[in-house]
Amino acid sequence: MRDANEMWKRIPLNSNYAAAYGAKDSDVDVVAAYPITPQTPVVERIADFIANGELNAEMIHVESEHSAMSACIGAASAGARTFTATSAQGLELMHELLHIASGLRLPIVMTIASRALSAPLSIWGDYSDVINVRDTSWIILIASSAQEVYDSVIQAYKIAEDPDVLLPVMVTYDGFMMSHTYEPVYVANNSEIFKDYIPKKRSWTVLDVEKPITMGAVANPDWYYEFKYQQVVAMEKSYDAIKNADKEFGKRYGRSYGIIETYNLDGSKIGVLTYGGLFGTVMEAIDYMNKEGIKVTGIRLRLFRPFPSNDIKEFLKDLKTLIVIDRAISFGAPIEGPIAMEISALAYRESIDIPIYSYIASVGQRTTTEEDIIGIVKDAISLFERGKRVTKSIYWGVRQ
Length: 400
Fold this sequence. Notes:
The chain is of the alpha/beta class. It has helices spanning 4-7, 15-25, 41-51, 65-77, 88-93, 95-103, 128-132, 146-160, 224-253, 278-291, 309-317, 338-349, 370-385; strands spanning 8-13, 30-33, 58-61, 82-86, 109-114, 139-142, 169-174, 183-188, 260-263, 270-274, 297-301, 303-305, 321-326, 356-360, 394-395. It folds into 2 domains: 4-253, Rossmann fold; 260-395, Rossmann fold. Strands 3-2-4-5-7-6-12 form a 7-stranded mixed sheet, with helices on both faces. It has a 6-stranded mixed sheet with strand order 9-11-10-13-14-15, with helices on both faces. α10 links the parallel β10 (270-274) and β11 (297-301). α2 runs parallel beside α8, α8 (146-160) packs across α9 and α10 (278-291) crosses α13 (370-385). The longest helix has 30 residues, at 224-253.
């Protein structure tokens, strides 16, 4: 690894601006986007980079998020390294195109300042939008700091452009709580340092007048199934690509995040799992609980798709109970916390018999403090001691 002072400069950035710097330092060719709160500063800053000559890229101003993803699909099909960003209803307006991007196996990277969905109208942060697109065959990373947002955008191109993967990647983070909150971030003094890490090789199939092909043609029932299965295999292969991209990033640049982050992993038999910026609050709460003699391990889910089943399985084996704090609702599901539901299914499949308590908090950016986390843990401990298993989610802090 080169000398840190030579490689980096440390500047105050929020996660939106960290995403923009990540795109710039990935040397993207085309950016297409439409403004939406709280994402808009991402592409505004990229427009500044292009205008002042820091980034040689084409900015496409479109009339909607649907058009933004359409433009990214066209640009990626022609061989360009593409980027976009959106949030909430904008992501939902893209939904049709998300399937097309992944089905065409285009390595597009997009950042999401996660936000609650209307109605009623809410511009505040939760993960309703991201949960809604979990089945679109996009790889989904959830960051918990601006530094991780910056690094993950760069890693995303390494993952997406891997010839064994060729799937688009979302890098997501908390709307407002992270998108508009500043913290010190190390960014490259010169984006040239990433050229060996993410070289432009055009590893995917592109439109070329010298070698004409058809993309997105009709697939009849004899073949459509096979195309979808190829995406299944690519998603499975992406797991190793994600781990390797992070590991190589760590060796080259001194920062890595893994698939799952843990805190206070000291043999505690109670685990609290969540994702995004709320993990910082969980860590603070664990410090308070340690002083009370309540030993708890914090677990942060960084990778949502592909779901890191093997990593989570290893944690489940060492716990007596797991508390999952979700930040979105899967309406009408047996367990309405989406991550809790997936972990419960995993535990059943692997015959791991521990209580998994599903709590839903911070929806619509309802304030969730350290005291709330402590209250959730004590509530779950009480249920555990009484031998009760939760068969539905507990809505923490909601007015009933």
